Give the backbone structure.
Amino acid sequence: MPLSRHCPAPRRALRRLAAVLTLTALAPGAGAWPLDDADDTRIGRLEYMRRVEAGTLSGTRQPPGALLPTRAVDLRLRERPDFTLPEVDAQFTAELRGLLGTAADRYSLAVLDLSDPEQPVYAEHRAHERYNPGSVGKLIVALAWMQALADRFPDDTRARWRLLRDTRIEADDVIIHDSHTVRRWDRANESLIRRPLQVGDPGTLFEFLDWMVSPSSNAAASVLILQAMLLNHFGADYPVSFERAAEFFRDTPREEREALLARTLQEPVTRNGFELANLRQGSPFTRRGKALVSGTTSRASAHELMQLLIAIEQGRAVDPFSSLILKKLMYVTERRIRYASSPALRDAAVYFKSGSLFRCEPEPDFVCRAYAGNKLNLMHSVAIVEHPAAERRLHYLVVLMSNVLRKNGAQVHQALGTAIQHLIAKRHPEAQTTQ
């Protein structure tokens, strides 16, 4: 029986099969970072996850959308360097605001729909409100590293890559205190070590970047901030020994350390065209790090974070080489959480970072739980979504920031990830996405 518009079910089945076959062809044995970069980056966690995907080690496998090979990860606005945010679309904004319910005043939201490249549509709701970015600020640390590398090797991206891949550093006491676990691959014994970083733990710069973004290790982020300061100070003499680094931070006057921190973390923001008032990581993430170099407050708005996502897609976050590294760092972390854990995004390539910060105070009949504070309950998500991963019929950017008290922010963001995906799909019936 020939297929026609009156037989949608068989057509959907064929499209689903085609998507699976295409994805399989793209990724014969690939996976996160993407995983087929395990050899080039020498990030140990990727080797472990690659073996899990191959079935030679037990562990949780990645969803279908997380299996793109590295050559399939690209910068979608690279050929549109002059692209700017369209005017806010009132109808699209109203539709998105309707998803937020009665607590809409506790959210900030920015969504850019690029599924029709010739007719991008933008919506925002309270997008200029500023929050502490939490762990989303680690993207600013990554940006600072890309800028420092570009300043050190302006015309030699291979040298930048070698420095990230081959430079081994150790975690020092700046890691204190952090409970985030990281996955370290013991190459000698071919086994996985999963625990918080401890003083003396070694890793390459690439691995520390991965630990900072993937499991969102505050310890790794603080180590990287200090290492970026060392790179900016010592230049061609970097990397320096553990002893020389310790001597530098011990003997350099505090005001000079603070100035170097600002040059390291804040100048890359303004140099890349972002507003420091609306996008700033002011200090390290650990107590010991702040004691060593305290810095200032951190803040971000949904609007400015959207500008960062656009710059990454355009290749303007420092340069195309740096932007691609930033996008890959955001692709498939150890597991999809919060916004990215939405079942509706299972087949999508999701490039994301999330962050949270919650506080509780005494309240009758209230039990303090993670991500559900009654005094403060920040939950932030940034995501580039390409759905389905192999065909990318839908392409949109999302920044969602919230402070909804007493509700599990992770679950709230997951539900909104589903709702926004369905709304974008509804706007493009011609894409005929599968769920």
Observations:
- Residues 134-297 form one domain.
- Residues 1-32 have pLDDT under 50 and may be disordered.
